[in-house]
Amino acid sequence: MQNYQFLVSQGMDPQDAMGRAFSGGVTVNTGETQTEYEKARGKGLAERMQGIQTDATSALSALTSLDVMEQAMSDPGFYSGAGGDNALLLKRVGKTLGFDVDGIDSMETFNAQSKSAALDVMGGSLGTGFSNADRDFVLDQVPNLSNTPEGNRTLIEVQRRIQQRKIDISQMARQFEAENGTLLGFDQVLAQWAAQNPVFDPGFMQGLSAAPQAAPTVRIYNPETGGFND
Length: 230
What we know:
The protein is mainly α. The protein is about 65% helix and about 5% strand. It has nine helices and two strands. The protein has a two-stranded antiparallel sheet with strand order 1-2. Helix 1 packs antiparallel against helix 2 and helix 3 packs antiparallel against helix 7 (about 150-180). The longest helix has about 40 residues, at about 30-70. The chain is elongated. The relative contact order is 0.12.
């Protein structure tokens, strides 16, 4: 109707205007409201794209941290589990006293990368408005010295899949934007793809449920040997 009224106002015969207005052959921008909406819509999509790219950058850093942590766990002197933080502290004390402490370097590396991975998962920081409990919850989602080695290996795989998914989404978004000039409609395509390609496939979930539960082991640190006695 806006097209029809515009054509009539320009002197076109009403009958001709009716045929042309509803033929799809003319588009008339008749209001500032539509322009402002389009601007806001475009800005929102641009911010969405920026957020996807930021998540992918953090994911690349997180994957590096996870690889380093997995490598550190291969050290025979590495320990994680009950009292892991205290064990690291005792190792530090032992090294300060001049003992040849085994595994301290790998545990130090693991501990540092755990904090780095947590920051990457949080996107740099939780920001204001979050409590220490919120921070601790996020830290529990990444491998740390308080978890058993088996638990840490599982968390490494879980986080690796999550971070890789962020990178995959970034690649898909760039391709979609290149082909369509905008992210409009991308979320629908992404939702369908995600449903067909779950991060945690049934095989992975079955493996988690079938994993044997190791009995808890109490280990006491021996500063003279730099190791642990069961």
